[in-house]
Amino acid sequence: MKVYIDSYGCTFNKADGQIMAGVLNENNIDLVDNIDDADVIIVNTCYVKLPTENKVVYKIQQLQKNFPDKKIIVGGCMVEIDPEKLDSIGPNCSWIGPHQLNKAADVVKQTYCGEVVRECGFSKESKVGVPKVTDDSLIHIIQICEGCLGACTFCCTRFARGPLNSYPISDIVAEAKEAIENGACEIQLTAQDTMAFGRDTGEKLSTLIKEVANLDGDFRVRVGMMHPKNILNDVDEIIDAIKQPKVYNFIHLPIQSGSDKVLKEMRRGHTVDQYIEIVNKFKKEIPDLTLATDIIVGYPTENNDDFLKTVDLLNEVKPSLIHLSKYQHRKGAISSSLKEIPHQTMKERSKFLSKIKGEITKQENEELLDSHQNVLIVEKGSKGGFIGKTDSYIPVVVEDVNLGEFVRVKITHATATYLKGIVE
């Protein structure tokens, strides 16, 4: 029996795929890299945005059409968010929800034998310290908690991931230590909201970051998305943790809108001024900080004045990375009961923000021309060369280096999305 796993979406979901692969490997079930060689196909779905939903729905439909003799299992967020639609497009598909990964081997075996198995529902099962199989030994993902404390009106992911479930710091540090000893040079701490970590157990994200960063070895730590609402009372401690030499000078702090009115209607739980205050504190203490943020363009209640406030905010804080999403209704989300703004208006606003995004990142990258950067080489480039990350998590393309090594690089070229450099 041979299994092919196809994962979509975020870093957290990618790790779910690695856990399923680990469970199958422990049960002597073969994993294959080519879908043609598989007897069973697992589609590990993401459902955060409509384009991704459309992509996974199309994939499931095409697999059934093109491989009628292969068994199909659907995993990921779609299983919990939209089971009705999943049942309609794949009535003969088995399911495995994101909280049932430890049952992956049983689901595969039963499905292979012709049964339709559907393992769903929530569980407190830990996702730390379990066997994982990954095609990248250099970058190791650790899920530090699952679920969130938010009530964002536009989000459907929280229906799949459930209430907050934080994992013990000791277990996370043990997994990180083992990964580093096995050759990992980048540890990614991920969650739906890393700042929610420990709110249910009494532990703190800042403590976790420091304990991982103080492990022996040459590596870097990347901290995943943090909700501004949950960082408000811990800004100084998180800054101190990010300042650790082995931690990337990088934060992902989504704002979604520059309008307090829209933020309130989104139930974000913080104001624009609070967000700016957080960012200013970080930039004062960490001058070479890379700030990533998320913007939703065209939330149903967003008027032109709200949009212009978002423009003003971006021009003021100048995020190094801006993830833009055009608003679209999501299954079960509160905002889905509202009337969408005209799509042409949304398209025009998105185009305007895309231009600002390009201008900000190009200017920031150009300021690094002729600078000398410490770079960790993490992957091969798709068009040749190698891709590394600076201490501020900015991608740099270089030649003639080895994966997993730290090199000193002079920056010779800058674009809106990456740098190029030569090894000194």
Primary descriptors:
424 residues, alpha/beta, Rossmann fold, Transcription Regulator spoIIAA, six-stranded parallel β-sheet, 22% strand
Explained architecture:
The chain has 424 residues and is α/β, with parallel strands linked by helices. It folds into 4 domains: 2-119, Rossmann fold; 136-248, Transcription Regulator spoIIAA (2-Layer Sandwich), CATH 3.30.750; 279-367, 2-Layer Sandwich (Transcription Regulator spoIIAA); 372-423, Nucleic acid-binding proteins (OB fold (Dihydrolipoamide Acetyltransferase, E2P)). It contains 14 helices and 19 strands. A hairpin with a 4-residue loop joins strand 18 and strand 19. The radius of gyration is 22 Å and the shape is globular. The model has no long low-confidence stretch (mean pLDDT 96).
User: What's the rounded overall pLDDT mean?
Assistant: 96
The CATH topology of the largest domain is what?
Answer: Rossmann fold
How many runs of DSSP E, i.e. beta strands?
19
The Cα radius of gyration reads 22 Å
Number of helices: 14
CATH architecture heading of the largest domain: 3-Layer(aba) Sandwich
